[in-house]
Amino acid sequence: MSLLSGMLGNASEVNIPEISKEFEPILVEGEHIEKAFKVIRDMYVFTNKRLILVDKQGITGSKVEFKSLPYKNITAISKQSAGILDLDAELKLWVKGVGQITAEFKKGADINGVYKMLSEHIL
Question: Where residue 109 sits, what CATH number does that domain have?
Fold first, then answer.
């Protein structure tokens, strides 16, 4: 991920084997990571059971909040592809008890793959 796209808040896909060890302690039996995206230090991690939002806080990032959103609580999703002048794609989720969550992805990210995966889990 380039520093510029990180500063702009655009997520880049993460290599799953690189982050598997970090998530091993919180994944339940039978759960595995399907896709993961990183924005500077924060991440969106899509498993076969839920979406995990990772918020690394503070200067060192040693304080970390993991927020689990079960797919059954996602009531609607939308995607907007990147354009010529608008270089980021956008994914919006409406989650019971949370409200709307918006994630921006850099141009070229597999937004269609994420949208399809979410659709398969929530429909």
Answer: 2.30.29.50
User: Of the candidates 40, 18, 50, 20, which has an alpha carbon nearest to the alpha carbon of residue 104?
Assistant: 40
pTM, 2 dp? 0.81
Q: How far is Cα 58 from Cα 45, in angstroms, rounded to an integer?
A: 20
Q: Which residues are 69's β-sheet partners?
A: 51
Q: What is the SS3 assignment for 57?
A: strand
Q: 36-52, pLDDT tens digit by residue?
A: 988 877 899 999 999 99
Q: What angle do CA 109, 59, 3 make, to 5 degrees?
A: 30
Two tokens, residue 6: 């990180």
Contact 34, 45 (CB under 8 A): no
Number of domains in the chain: 1
- Domain coverage including residue 55: 3-122
